[in-house]
Hints:
CATH architecture: Roll
Shape: globular
Oligomer: single chain
Strand order of the largest sheet: 1-2-3-4-5
Distance between the termini: 49 Å
Number of helices: 4
Amino acid sequence: MAVALLLTGLAVGCGTAGVREDDARTAATGFERALDAKDFAGVCARLAPQTRDELENSEGKGCADAVPGLSLPAAGDLVRVRVYGRQAQASGPGDTLFLSQFDHGWKVVAAGCEPRQGQPYQCTVKGG
């Protein structure tokens, strides 16, 4: 009986991680599609609140007006999505995105991110 409960718990846990990964991938893909379509209001809607606030404060204008000047790279097809609890990293050939899970779904907390040897990623858009 204990083994059956343990196996059931493992199966549920794996399914939950898979669902979170799928949801994070969907959010990252939505962000990339909005960016590709030049739907800057859609890009902003997919940003985490702190990230959107930081962008507006640093650029001195509304989010949808600020995004075009950032020249954010397109990630392309997302080849890897990793979920760590309520955080995720989505990578494609052209960009890496970082996401967080909020009560109403996944939001992008950083975009335009490039790896740096032995240091954290350098991101064009990020929350404070």
